[in-house]
Known about the structure:
16% strand, 4 domains, alpha/beta, NADH-quinone oxidoreductase subunit F, iron, Nuop51_4Fe4S-bd_sf, 4Fe-4S
Amino acid sequence: MSVVAPPLRVYVSRDASALALGAEATARAIEVVARERGIAIDLVRTGSRGLFWLEPLVEVEVVAGGTATRVGYGPVAANEVAGLFDAGFGNAGAHPARVGAIESLDWFARQDRLCFARVGTTDPLSVADYVAHGGYRGLHNALAMDGAGIVAAVTASGLRGRGGAAFPTGIKWKTVLDAPTSADGAGSPTKYVVCNADEGDSGTFSDRMLMEGDPLCLVEGMTIAGFAVGATQGYIYLRSEYPHARRALEAAIANAYAAGWLGADIRGSGRRFDLEVRLGAGAYICGEETALLESLEGKRGQVRFKPPLPAIKGLFGRPTVVNNVISLASVPLILDRGADYYRDYGVGRSRGTLPIQLAGNLKRTGLVEKAFGTTLRELLYDYGGGSYSGRPIRAVQVGGPLGAYLPESQFDTPLDYEAFAAIGAMLGHGGIVAFDDGVDMLEQARYAMAFCAVESCGKCTPCRIGSTRGVEVLERIGAGIERAKNLALLDDLCETMRHGSLCALGGLTPDPVASALRHFGEDFAPSRGKV
C-alpha cells in the first residue's frame, strides 16, 4: 500500500505591508505553479514576521529527522516563483533569495518576542492553531480568579500603557473595578472595555500588525480585562484606514464565539463577555481616549473635560477601561506565565517589552520587539542597518508626529520612559522615523504645527488657533523676516500651547518644534532662504 506524501506547507503573509509589496500576487503564483506541476501544497496565510525589506517573504516547512523547520526566501516577486520550484525550495534548495530559518537570523534571534511571538507563525484566524501555540492559557487561568486577583497580577507585572501615555495598566483597571456605577453606588452594574485601535501616529504599525497577525491575542486580552473589572461588553475602536485588520478581527471574533471563547457562557464558566468592532472616520484626535469615547457614542470626536476620568465615567457615562492594542495583547502572557516572568524584562519602571517600529530612511525597516533598555543606536544600526541612502543619520523622531527630534548625540539613550522624559522626549507608541543629513529641520518643525492645525478637534483655542499661527511664524522665520522677534514669538506661542491646551495634541505639538530649534538651530538661520 503506497503512502501519500503530505502536502508541502508554504507560508505567505497577508499583512497589509506585505500585500502592498506584492504578497497576494506571489501567493497566487505559488498556487498556480504548484497546480501546473502536480505538487500538493497547503498555503497558510500568516501575519508578517516584521522583516519588511524581505517581503514578500515565502517560508516553506521542511521536515528532516522528524523535525519541522521553516526556511525563508525573500523578497520573492510573483514572476520569481517558478524559479523557486526549479530550485527545489520544498527541500530548502539553494536560491539567491534563500535567507534560511527566520528564527536563526541574528536580526530576529536577538529580539524578545513576547507579544508578537505568534505573529507570522500561525494562521491568524484559526482558534485551534492559536490554542496549539499557547493561546487562551491566560484566559483559562483568569477563569479561576476573581477580578481583584487579575488586577493584582497585571499591577505586579509593571505593565504600562503602550499607546503613549505609559500609565500603569493595573491602576487603571483597579479604578474601574472599584468604581461605583452610580452616584450612590446602587445603580446599573454596566461597565465597558474599549480598545483604542485608532493607530494614527506616523511611522507606527504595531497595532495593525498584531490585529492582522494575531487578532485572537487581542480578543483574549480584552476578555480577561472584562473579567478583571466586571465588564461584559467590549468594543474595538478601529481606524477606517485598516480594512485588512477589520476583516481579520471580525473573522477572529466570529471564530471565538463559535469555539465558546466569547458569549454568554464562556467555556462553561457562566461568565459572559461580548465583543464587536466599531469603525472611526479617520480623525487623529480620536486617538485621545475621551474623543474616542465621544465618537464611539456617535458624536463628533472632541476631547472631554477631565475629571471625571473615563475609568469613572466613560462610555455612555459608565466606568470604562480604555487601553491600547498592545497593552491588552500583553495581558494573556502575564496571566499565563505570571507577573514575575513579564516584569523580569525591562529596566527601571519600564517593564516588559516594546514593539518598536522602524521607519523612514533605514535599510531594514520593520518591527522589532525588545525589552526596555536597548538604545536608539542599536535599533538604528544593528537592526535598521543604517540609512537607506548611505548618508549619516542626522535625526530621529520617536513617538509619532508630536515626538521630539533627537540628534546623533542622544542616540545612546536607552528606550525607557523615564530616560526619554529626562531628555525632553517621549517613547509614545514606539514608532521611530529616521532622517539622513539631507533633512530640513525647519520644514519638519513647520510640519508638526501644520499637522496639529489640520487634526485639531477645535475645542480649545491654544490648539486650534495656536497651531495655525505657529505655521505662519515658522514661515516668516524661514523667509528671514524679523527672525529674532519671530523666534521669541514662537517660544511664547509654544508655551501657551503646552500649558493651555485641553489635551496632548496641542500640548505636545511644541515638542518637535522646540527640539528641532534646540538641536538643529542652523536650519533656522536667516541665510537658509524661504521655506
